[in-house]
Task: structure prediction
Amino acid sequence: MKAIIFSNGDYRDKGFYQNYLRNSAGSFIIGADGGANFLMEIGICPDFLVGDMDSISTATYNYFKEKTIVEKYPAMKDQTDTEIAIQKAIELKATEVVIFGGMGDRIDHSLGNIYLLSRLLKKGIRGQIKNEKQEIILIDDEITLSYPVKTVVSILPIDGAASSIWIEGFLYPVENGDMTITEPYGISNVTNEASQKIRVGQGKLLIIANRE
Result:
């Protein structure tokens, strides 16, 4: 089961998100505080609304509180609203989590959301952060992808060094390679086959795909 989280980040192309939701029937939708403002804009009622409610508009909150399950937290808390939403997805026994609005002008929030992918990975849940232009995935094993040929993809270690790296279906393949955060040579690789495979034996790899 998929859980889709809407965080309080940047949203530009409404059609992108509406189309994604149309193709994700049966998924749980979680509004993380101000992320619900965008859900209101596109006419989607979340299954859950979580957070301290400091960035959601009064009109949106009043509308959704009559239609969905609201879990309101104190403003003085240790967790971000996105973190709370991820915990809710784990409680719902999601097998896949997609985070929208997880990237924006606040680099601290963006990095924090990327780090949260590790929490999902520890639970055996594949997590992604997506927007209209980028898709971010964290792996600690292997993944098969199907990005269009000539897609620019960066593959970077996170949480220390990564080893036994295999990268196939790219202009710059890697066979049994190692990568460290001080030598991130995986920037701006390019797909040259319709199917791609990335594998890491030890450590974690962050995959960042850039769409036109």
About this structure: The longest strand covers residues 152-168. The mean pLDDT is 94.
